[in-house]
Design brief:
The protein is mainly alpha-helical. It has helices at residues 9-43, 50-81, 84-101, 110-133, 141-147; strands spanning 150-153, 156-159.
């Protein structure tokens, strides 16, 4: 059985915090907070909010379509320039900036809201793709499992209670 060397605790902690922050963006901003604020307050076409929900869906669809179209080219450029970590850092700075700017979108500023959502979703998804490229250099599930008192069994994580 081949053993993989354990990643340093600092690296495991760093990737865990990075994944926690990523989960927060998709859970809090995309799914819970702004998906409610945008149709109800920014667009404000109550009581059924059809236009607001449509525009929210279109904004996310456009952003992901742009990612699908541009990711292969951008990935090739990043690979060629060996700039994965710099791009990852830059993409998350842009994600934070675009997301923070959503605070300043007032009721009726629909276009600004759509543009900021599209930008944040694009740079987040591009950063996520680069993170996947770096996956070979990040801690393995086994090393994280060992640090959390769990062990890997097949494709599931189970408590290490033998």
């Amino acid at each position: 059985m081949k053993t993989t060397p354990r990643a340093p605790a600092r690296e495991i902690f760093g990737w865990a915090m990075f994944d926690f922050a990523n989960s927060s963006y998709t859970t809090v901003i995309v799914t819970v907070v702004f998906s409610v604020i945008f149709p109800r307050l920014i667009v404000g076409d109550g009581p059924d909010y059809k236009l607001g929900n449509l525009l929210w869906s279109v904004a996310l669809s456009v952003s992901y379509a742009l990612v699908v179209l541009t990711a292969p080219v951008l990935g090739a450029i990043i690979d060629f320039r060996a700039a994965k970590k710099r791009f990852l850092f830059g993409s998350y700075l842009l994600t934070v900036a675009a997301t923070a700017l959503l605070y300043f979108v007032s009721p009726g500023q629909v276009l600004l809201g759509v543009v900021l959502v599209v930008i944040s979703a694009i740079v987040f998804a591009m950063g996520w793709a680069v993170r996947q490229f770096l996956q070979g250099k990040r801690p393995t599930l086994d090393s994280i499992s060992n640090s959390t008192g769990s062990r890997r069994s097949g494709d599931t994580l189970q408590p290490a209670c033998d």
